[in-house]
Amino acid sequence: MSKIFQLISSIQLGGAEVVAFDIAEHCCKELCKNVEITIVQLYETRNEYAVLKKKELTSKNIRIITLYKGSKRMSLLLAPFFLLLLITKEKPLIIHSHTDLPDFVLATTIRLSYLFKIKLPRVVRTIHNTQLWRSHSRMGKITETMYDDEPIVSVSSNAMVSYEKLRGKYKLPVSSNRQIIYNGCVVPKHSLHSFKIERDKINIAFCGRFEDYKGVEILITMIPEIENLYPHRFQFHLIGDGSYKKQLQKLVDNNSNVFIYDPVPNVSSMFHAFNFLLMPSHFEGLGLISIESSLSGVPVIAAHAPGLDETLPEKWPLKFDFRNKEELLKIFENINNNIYELKLLKENAYSFVLNKFSQQRMINSYSELYSKLL
Q1: Is the pTM value of this prediction over 0.85?
Q2: Fewer Cβ close by (within 10 Å): the C or N end of the chain?
């Protein structure tokens, strides 16, 4: 049995994790029955989403291994030792790292392998973001110096540019084996939801991590202003978790038109409940949520951001500069006044993403890459 490890931070709501799950579920079918793909997480997330997602993956016979069951910070110190032991025991042929923390842990594992003279599997890295090591440059350099000419996949053209710039910043050569594989999606099926929808109002969803780069501060400042301009016209549904949760809870407490929800498994199947999806991100690797929303027939109000721009048609009228609140307010004014031809917008976005972001194309591309390495 040939083994492939998908190395992720943890089971959580994020584009990188979704890609790893899709690879684990579908690539085996494309390769052969003698390949086993395992999810290896650095640490354990214990919210409801993680519990339900873990059960779903297990029901699909996808094995999950947790390297360290303590805190996230301690996992960065101890996970490399556990990963090296796991590699020694199971002897995978490929280890595929997704995002910065897994890259760091794997880089440390490579250092340990030199010390103990242990042969490692082939390494594949997927670059999921357009801002790499933005607050921990030294940690980024420690990580990148351990990588050389491994296959590099980026989820967007902007993510590839970011990887190349990072290597240049550290005076390191870029991999000669690199390619863009867009994250793939399928048209979401409609499922039941428990969102507090009022059909006489316009329901706007935000779905993602409650972090600064997702534009959470825009939600905090703009939602009260929009409510003041258009009383009882809009409802905002915030789905996710993160370091800004307390600030967003205050927003909910002070505004009757704002609701907050924990991360929801397979939330894309529930996008049909909303009129619009709001993505005020400063940057993305590739806005998977945006793609899923367009496939669900829900128009995306999106900030101009690397990695997010690529998910929408070029002349998309619902784009705005996140540094210019007037542009966002103008979009809400147009929505309130029924200016947009919503049927045409939905058709254009659906056609665009259906052609560009096929899940089968993504699976075929990763399967081809694995086949060459195997």
Answers
A1: no
A2: N
